[in-house]
Design goal:
Blueprint: H1 2-28, H2 34-44, H3 51-60, H4 67-81, H5 95-107, H6 111-139
Length: 148
């Protein structure tokens, strides 16, 4: 029984690692980065951004480093203090944006926003569970998806 639990735990670790790699790849794969689109947006609005400011932002967010270094830094922050990084668009930490919005919507009785947030979180939980079940059938040969 102990070997079974250990093997299942190992499968879980592999699945979590692969999930984080896929999530990070989805973020990194599109051409360009956020700073490129941010600078384009500022210039379209008539703002002027110097190369020094772009370089300072790039080094502050670690965007000048290779992708594997960015991934390792992201995972280190995630594992050590549950730091998901900073939202470049909102200039805030993501875990500090959803909670206060949900709390404020409950306090002001904005039930449409509160129910929308809870619905999205519920759907994401169900989809995540479904995807992990499908991945588990691929990893564990004893589980088969059979049609009747």
């Amino acid at each position: 029984m102990g070997a079974y639990v250990a093997r299942r735990f190992l499968y879980m670790l592999i699945l979590v690692l692969l999930s984080t790699v896929v999530a990070f790849a989805i973020i990194v794969l599109p051409p360009g980065d956020y700073l490129t689109s941010y600078v384009t947006q500022l210039e379209a609005q008539g703002g002027d951004v110097t190369d020094e400011e772009i370089a300072a932002l790039r080094s502050a967010y670690g965007l000048g480093q290779p992708e594997y270094v960015q991934y390792i830094r992201w995972m280190n922050g995630l594992l050590t203090d549950f730091d998901l990084g900073r939202s470049l668009a909102q200039r805030a930490v993501p875990r500090q944006t959803i909670g206060p919005v949900l709390l404020q919507s409950l306090l002001t009785e904005d039930m449409f926003l509160a129910s929308g947030i809870l619905l999205v979180l519920t759907v994401l939980t169900i989809v995540g569970t479904f995807i992990s079940d499908l991945a588990l059938t691929w990893v564990d040969p004893r589980i088969r998806m059979e049609r009747n």
